[in-house]
């Protein structure tokens, strides 16, 4: 199946959804971000990236090493959360101070830069906060993520390293899965990349599996 088959999952995500994207450390999640942004561009859906601890720059650098065109990604508005690298089209910045994150300040920035049209909002590197924050702040983070479910101005994709979460905070992954309206799994193996819908608010995509090769992605 070509990468266009991914539309049957990505384009069925509804406004207001919070989607958990679980990936392994060796599955190259940057490829899914690349496809997601390309598909949004094709259907004229705006994108706003939340970049936690310079994760966006890590994604783009790896995509460049793979030989993919990253110029369109560099034009996407980015809200930086922590990190110290000025990278991409940064439209707002939220500091992570003393192991805490000011969600009220983030909300002000988000409301200021979010377009009028429903926006696709990839959130990159959220697991880094779960590693760095104190226990009380981790619980607060999960609670705040849950408050964004149903916000019709966006549909959000939280990219999370499953390997890190299972080692550092194994009890939190099921809690996040319960909180999310849809849970997707991105995996790689035997020369193929696969996106699975483990949980879905839209019954049309529940259980769907999309498989593609790197050549498919290169030709997207």
Taken in chain order, the helices and strands follow as HEHEHEEEEHEHHEHHEEEH
Briefly note the structural class of the backbone.
Answer: alpha/beta
Q: What does the main sheet amount to?
A: 9 strands, mixed
Number of strands: 11
Give the assembly state of these chains.
single chain
Distance between the termini: 12 Å
CATH superfamily: Protein of unknown function DUF257
Going across the biggest sheet, name each strand in turn.
4-3-2-7-8-1-9-10-11
CATH architecture: 3-Layer(aba) Sandwich
Percent of residues in β-strands: 25-35%
Domains counted in the coordinates: how many?
Answer: 1
Shape field: globular
Radius of gyration: 16 Å
Task: Catalogue the unreliable spans.
Answer: none
Summary of the model, kept short:
This protein is an alpha/beta fold and 220 residues long. It has helices at 7-10, 30-42, 55-65, 103-113, 126-132, 135-147, 162-168, 172-179, 214-218, and strands at residues 18-23, 49-52, 77-81, 89-94, 96-97, 100-101, 119-124, 154-161, 182-189, 192-199, 209-212.
Q: What can you see in these coordinates?
A:
The structure is a single chain. The protein is of the alpha/beta class and 220 residues long. It has a single domain (4-8, 27-219), classed as Protein of unknown function DUF257 (Rossmann fold). Helices cover 36% and strands 27% of the residues. Helix 3 links the parallel strand 2 and strand 3 (77-81). Helix 2 (30-42) crosses helix 3. The longest helix has 13 residues, at 30-42. It is globular and about 40 Å long.
